[in-house]
Write a structure and sequence with these properties.
about 280 residues, mainly beta, Immunoglobulin-like, 2 domains, 3 helices, globular
């Protein structure tokens, strides 16, 4: 009988200690200190992928809001081709009940005065100057993992003021040209360096819209993706030719081109740069 009572006392003591330990763990848990005072800031938002980044009109800048120690950054993207984001990994975003980030519709104004509507997102920021995971899904229904970093916060809420202040004395390279067909010098970056595109390239202007005719050095490119939109070649013989939109002549154009020259089709990221001063 004494052993039975002793066992009950010991069991009760273990339960009490366990509850106290759990309670203690909960009471000492605190929100991470963001290291920045509550307020509104213009911050830099960079990613690991050329197809997922802040709209060029905002030059990698977004509005960072800090409230009660929690940080959220609002960024305007390139278009409406990314339909949801998830603060974490793609595998978790696919799970039932995952809370996806819904887009807002933002207006952006490019250096040449052209206005456009794009999607924007409010993204939770766990820490400044450190990589964190953000998954995205586009109009094709596929999830992709990405790493992003938020850094260099400047107090205020005017992105253009920060951009202009950081580039004092610089002027836009946009060129005011007439509607019609022109030529422009182009350069290609990325890939293995074996591929190239013809330069000068044909450039067509209609109102505020530009279209570039890109001719590759190979007949094996079967599609291009620009700003999330897929484009097919406009020819059937010879090297691959594409007609693609150009949102701004002043900024590099990030594209994906799929080649069938390898054992399996392979998407390759490239950057196309235009020289507005060379337009004829």
């Amino acid at each position: 009988m004494k052993n039975f009572k002793l066992s009950k006392i010991l069991l009760y003591a273990v339960l009490v200690v366990s509850v106290l330990m759990l309670a203690g763990c909960g009471s000492t848990e605190k929100a991470a200190d963001p290291g920045i005072a509550d307020g509104t800031y213009v911050a830099t938002f960079t990613t690991d992928n050329s197809m997922f980044h802040v709209n060029e009109a905002h030059q990698d800048k977004g509005i960072l809001t800090v409230e009660d120690g929690k940080m959220t950054i609002h960024v305007s993207l390139q278009s409406k081709k990314i339909v949801n984001l998830y603060p974490g990994l793609a595998e978790d975003a696919k799970k039932e009940g995952a809370e996806l980030l819904e887009p807002t519709t933002d207006k952006v104004v490019y250096s040449d005065g052209y206005e456009d509507e794009v999607y924007g997102f409010d993204i939770p920021v766990p820490a400044l100057d450190e990589e964190f995971d953000v998954a995205l899904i586009g109009t094709h229904g596929n999830w992709y993992d990405h790493k992003v970093v938020v850094s260099d916060p400047v107090e205020g809420d005017d992105i253009q003021a920060v951009i202009n202040g950081g580039a004092e004395g610089e002027s836009s390279a946009a060129t005011d040209i007439e509607d019609g067909e022109h030529t422009v010098e182009v350069t290609l970056e990325g890939g293995t360096g074996k591929a190239s595109i013809d330069s000068p390239a044909v450039l067509r202007k209609s109102g505020d819209e530009y279209t570039a005719v890109i001719t590759w050095s190979s007949p094996y490119y079967d599609y291009m993706i620009v700003d999330g939109q897929r484009y097919e070649p406009v020819n059937t013989d010879g090297n691959s030719v594409f007609e693609i939109p150009v949102s701004s002549l002043d900024s590099p154009l990030e594209v994906i081109a799929d080649t069938t020259a390898m054992s399996e089709p392979h998407e390759i990221e490239y950057t196309i740069r235009f020289d507005p001063a060379s337009i004829k």
